Amino acid sequence: MAKSSAILDIRRERDEHSILQDIKSGLRPEAGQSKYLPTLLLYDGSGLKLFEKITYLDEYYLTNAEIEVLTKWAKNIAERIPDKSVIVELGSGNLRKIEILLATIDYLGREVDYYALDVSETELQRTLAAVPHGRFAHVNCYGLHGTYDDGLEWLKSPALAGRPKSVLSMGSSIGNFTKASASAFLGAFSAALQPGDRLLIGIDACRDPRKVFHAYNDTDGVTHRFILNGLEHANQLLGREEFDIADWRVIGEYRYDAAGGRHVAFVTPRRDVTIDGILVRKDEKIQIEESNKFSGDEANQLFGQAGLLQGVKWTNETGDYGKAGS
Q1: If exposure means fewest CB atoms within 10 Å of the residue's CB, which of 65, 158, 191, 266 is most exposed?
Q2: Where are the domains of the chain?
Q3: Domain 4-11+60-206+294-325 falls under CATH 1.10.3290.10
Q4: 72-96 burial, b if ≥16 CB within 10 A, otherwise e?
């Protein structure tokens, strides 16, 4: 019977220190650039719980699209993952989607080690505990406590040398990068893999502005609470209440330009405020998140710039969401 739930701490430095520096840098951008806050602020323990609520909203089309793809194509995907593989999911969050794939891998009798990578140890404990004891006969489930960069270095460790590896980025996590940095991100993981290893990426190709806008600006306001929680997290890291949440609101915008389609989330103050010694004017927008959408050509370009060949793609019925694999 497979074992589960051990969590490895692979952090090379304290995440909080890195995010704190990014807060200070974002409030003091280079000349000609706008202020920003690091997206990683959104994913503390409270933020992850709010994001889990978002994934159950009807307006957040991505979850149902991904479940549709995994349910329809799980066997095809699982058959590409060799026996004795190490599977690493980047930014795992709730395991209810990946469990569809893991159950199929288990059914095929593949002996694999699955590692859920997340920046929150508390969330890893919670989500791994939700996998019933004895759920899988062949799949071992573990947690990796660390950032994407920590996970990248861990994949290069001698202990994993010679083992087949599959790296999964589910949902639309790749969309949180700018399109230039997304290719660099994939390229870094590609360089850490060996011939025959797999990289499976969730690609959101939705081009419907209304559908995208409402996915990130739901009628219940859960997503805006998720964004504002990032400011609460910033207060914790700064060690004082720099952000009075009552003074701030969230603005979501769908943008389509030369860079393609994307949703951008901003926080903006209702009055002039001073944050960490920096004046922020009333209604000045500070970007905290962006979610890029990739057309088929853009997805091919993304893989090409990362030095990868997009060998296969599995999509939902409408074709606006898919899994691209190398």
Answers
A1: 158
A2: 4-11+60-206+294-325, 26-53+208-293
A3: no
A4: ebbeebbeebeeebbbbbbbbbbbe
